[in-house]
Amino acid sequence: MNHNEALLADWRTLAQRLQEEVRRAVIGQDRIIELITTAIFARGHVLLEGDVGVGKTTILRAFARAIGGAFARVEGTVDLLPNDLLYYTYIAADGKPRVDPGPLLQHEDRLSVFFFNEVNRARPQVHSLLLRAMAEKSAFAFSREYHFPHLTVFADRNRVEKEETFEISSAARDRFMFELQVETPQDIETQRALVFDPRFHDVDALLRNVAEAMLPHAELNAIGAQIQSGIRASAQLERYALQLWQATRAPEQFGVQLDGVNMRQLLAAGASPRGMSMLLRAARVTAWLNARDYLTPEDIHAAFKPAIVHRVFLTSVYELRRTEIVHELATQILAKIAAP
Length: 340
What we know:
By secondary structure, the chain is of the alpha/beta class.
């Protein structure tokens, strides 16, 4: 085993420990924990969606604690302004007005995790500023450029309330590597623990069980790059991935049919090149986590829905049935296209 292989093996152990630490605070969400771990090592941002009270915030806070580095958080509200992310004003003890860096800027290049709670309550102007931070890992304020090279954005939104909320634009959604649906655990023992075990009623106490800063977060970019360069894909697998991409843009050409849907009128747009590149980044991390240096169709399948369904845009006729349709569409695409 050469130096790079040994280094990646050590980091794989760290990735496994990261999941174990998060599970000290979160039960019944193993698949979500695995996918967020994948996104972290693929250097992607994550959006969680689900009903109220299913643990979205707890999951993201647990990961933020374990990853380490500087942490910033903002609550989405209808009156939040873009500048509220950059600076805040107040009257100091001497009675004079002061302006200090806001949550996005106060830690500068030490910022590791930026957590945007209830992101759909913020206005589109705020989403636009967040989009630049996610895409370029930088922001301009106080007459200079701030850079956040180690930044990972975690965001959540609940899917129940629609009043005083704003849909996230397609451009902003496309910057999230994964959009994950968090559901109430179905296992009866897990449900009983969540409801009756007092341990799960105090989130702050739960989070104190998670080891702090267990990852050398400033090294994640370099490790992520090594993972990407160290996982190979065969020509057959590349053709398979391209067929999957084409099917998100013209599913009827691959024999995909959905009940009650006119397939020729279904899509406004399919997955973007960026979306497919993020899918492949996540698939390579999945292979690495499984101690392989080559891609398999199963690696792509594991990341396909989380990486693609929020990047498929429907015409207005079908938008109200979006969640149901896009997940069934992804299922049918994987079923119709033969894997190598």
